[in-house]
Amino acid sequence: MGIPERRERERQERRDAIVGAASRVFLRKGLSQATMEDIAREAELSKGALYLYFKNKDELFLNIALAALADFDELIARVAQSDRAPAEKVRELLVEYLRYAGENQSRFQVAMGWLVPNYSVGDESPLFEEYQQAVQRVFDASLKVLKEAVSAGELVLVSSAERTWLQCWGALFGLLIIENSRDEIERRIALEKPGVEGLAQDFIETFMGALAPAK
Amino acid sequence: MGIPERRERERQERRDAIVGAASRVFLRKGLSQATMEDIAREAELSKGALYLYFKNKDELFLNIALAALADFDELIARVAQSDRAPAEKVRELLVEYLRYAGENQSRFQVAMGWLVPNYSVGDESPLFEEYQQAVQRVFDASLKVLKEAVSAGELVLVSSAERTWLQCWGALFGLLIIENSRDEIERRIALEKPGVEGLAQDFIETFMGALAPAK
Amino acid sequence: MGIPERRERERQERRDAIVGAASRVFLRKGLSQATMEDIAREAELSKGALYLYFKNKDELFLNIALAALADFDELIARVAQSDRAPAEKVRELLVEYLRYAGENQSRFQVAMGWLVPNYSVGDESPLFEEYQQAVQRVFDASLKVLKEAVSAGELVLVSSAERTWLQCWGALFGLLIIENSRDEIERRIALEKPGVEGLAQDFIETFMGALAPAK
Amino acid sequence: MGIPERRERERQERRDAIVGAASRVFLRKGLSQATMEDIAREAELSKGALYLYFKNKDELFLNIALAALADFDELIARVAQSDRAPAEKVRELLVEYLRYAGENQSRFQVAMGWLVPNYSVGDESPLFEEYQQAVQRVFDASLKVLKEAVSAGELVLVSSAERTWLQCWGALFGLLIIENSRDEIERRIALEKPGVEGLAQDFIETFMGALAPAK
DNA sequence: AATGAATGAGAGTTCATTCAT
DNA sequence: TATGAATGAACTCTCATTCAT
């Protein structure tokens, strides 16, 4: 517990603080509208200080995305190794996914934000490839959970596992966007309570119901 | 059909051409990264000319969204007035919605883009209120179609019509985003054919199936 | 003499004005110390306007250098085609070179400035190759004039033509720098009149004298 | 030899090490493009430590120049006090000058760099006057060596001693720049071997030859 | 009505300098 | 004495908007 250790720990804390500040700002404004000035202010630092921790704006973004994807890796592994029945694992995976998205709104949205045109990042960064691989890895690992439930005969698909999974993921993605856009939506549509809350959660039931084999 | 009429007609045509050009550019680049220069070039006009037709970039954006919403008004009315069975109207509505989204990708994405943080526009524009009202109008009109099918006993819902409709709309929204982000996805995930195509289309069947009453 | 012609002419004039302003600033401050702001102010324009005429700072610099090198091309061709005796052409070339350097101090210094470490320009610009080739062309063309005088037996060299030429060029380069640095030098050394004026001119006589064959 | 003495000695050694590191960096990158970070890394120190020894970047620069000028003082004195013939002292001085320039490329370039616009330093520093005086002193001392050779009748000048000396110095300056810019030159001109090497050396012979009286 | 040159605020990024430790 | 994190001013470059023609 010497000085270098404390330095290193503080450095890591500061990095994390920046990542947190940046994801909040990215969530609020979107990648291209968020300025380094905004992020610095949110992190209560000077603009220049950001560059002591991240090479540039793209790498800051990619680090956030990678952090979320690393969390997914872990989440998926935890579910896969649990001792539930295969079909239960699928449900558990979806539930955990939503829980994570709810608890880490900003990080989650940033990680998934590339689906929207102007989020896209230049691919020159050396981190970009790492990021691509992480997306693939997460997709594959979660797909594997579904496939095992199918192999076990616990779920029945109408199309390929990949396509089914994409459909589920895409629908949840849309529903999460809507849940997260509550303010924007309420500025436009008057809704009865409970409004948009829990939409994605409900979808899981629909989805699992549709895959359960007729008894 | 005097000269002022022709003038006015030509002015409107030019406005439409700009709206078309702008939505293509917004689709390609996203709202904040599309420049007025880009739009002018796409419209084969000078930058300055854009300002003769639209007060600023925000109003240009809002006009696109309003154009799409006007198309929806028409589309919904057409379906509502058709002589199909109520439940069929719901299916028809969804199919038409997707068809429109496919045929007018750019206009559609722009109109729906406000759900995503970085698309959001300042709300100072006088057009903004008009836009809000249009969203509400479209939502209500389409919701009415669903409610009629429920009243007719042709569809059975587990939760409120509003909520069901939001769920359907949100899921389709996510799936359309994914279909439209094919390139970005393929940069990250290797997929077997047919990739992301038709995901939303398939979802309609799932959705309608879930609502059909047990016979 | 229509409007487009006038536009084009004005555009070219503006370009030239910027080139002039930029070379004055580059001369005063050096490439890396001169800011686009400085240049804009000198040209009585806004910063942004510079970018309407030149892609970036490097290309602005390279355009100046290329303009000077084009002048050299012409100058050398004019001397080479004159009907003087070969050795006289060499002297003429040097005299003209100095005259040009005197009359276009800033442009000349900028074109030659790359010999000094921090003038150096990134070599990514497509203009850079053109620039390299122009330097080579000027060097070769002027060297040819010297070689002809040698072939004609009018001059006698102790080492290779290339090396002799480099020596002459290098010495003149140093002397011109000193002449152009009069202010800096006078801040440091008290000199009798005429100070540093005409140093390079005098050197030509020394140089030509050293090459003339003993009779 | 108490503790304070050792302290002082160590401090001076550290200063010298920084001066050495800085001149290497200045040589590589030029004054304005060398960063304090670069210098600190080269000196294997932290950025902050540089400021314990030098007030700011300008003073660091001036210290390098002063160090070189002090070396020149010594060099000139050594030559002046040797027991050679006066004309030989002149040659010796030039040879030693080149030797020093070759062996201390970086220090030399920095000391002489003020002749080139972009090296120039603000003249607010209190060291600036000292620097000016040192330049004058070196120039006068070396000029005296030339004058003695002339008085002794061993050299014959066509113009004033001062002017002759400036001419020699300027030409050598140009040639040394060229020798030191080998890389930049080779990026632009294809030269036969030996390229630019020894150009200045050769010039000394030409120069001395031109001053030797006809026997 | 239309142009496109011009503006100027503000973006990302760098770096000399300061300062708590 | 030495560190290196932090600052903030200055840099290059972009772009929505204006305006003379």
Explain this structure:
The structure is a homotetramer. With about 220 residues, chain A is mainly α. Chain A folds into two domains: about 55 residues, Arc Repressor Mutant, subunit A (Orthogonal Bundle); about 160 residues, Tetracycline Repressor, domain 2. The first copy, chain A, is built from ten helices and no strands. In chain A, helix 1 packs across helix 4. The termini of chain A are far apart. Chains in contact: A-B, C-D. The structure holds a DNA duplex (21 and 21 nucleotides).
Sum this structure up briefly.
With about 220 residues, chain A is mostly helical. Helix content of chain A is about 75%, strand content about 0%. Chain A is globular and about 60 Å long.
Descriptive keywords:
homotetramer; Tetracycline Repressor, domain 2; DNA-binding; mainly alpha; 2 domains; 73% helix; 215 residues; Arc Repressor Mutant, subunit A
Number of helices of chain A: 10
Number of strands of chain A: 0
Helix amount of chain A, in percent?
over 70%
Unreliable stretches covering 5 or more consecutive residues of chain A: none
- Largest sheet: number of strands, sense, barrel closure of chain A: none
| Radius of gyration from the alpha-carbon trace of chain A, in angstroms | 20 Å
CATH topology of the largest domain in chain A: Tetracycline Repressor, domain 2
Percent strand of chain A equals: under 5%
Any guess at the CATH architecture of the largest domain in chain A?
Answer: Orthogonal Bundle
Ends apart, CA distance between termini of chain A = 61 Å
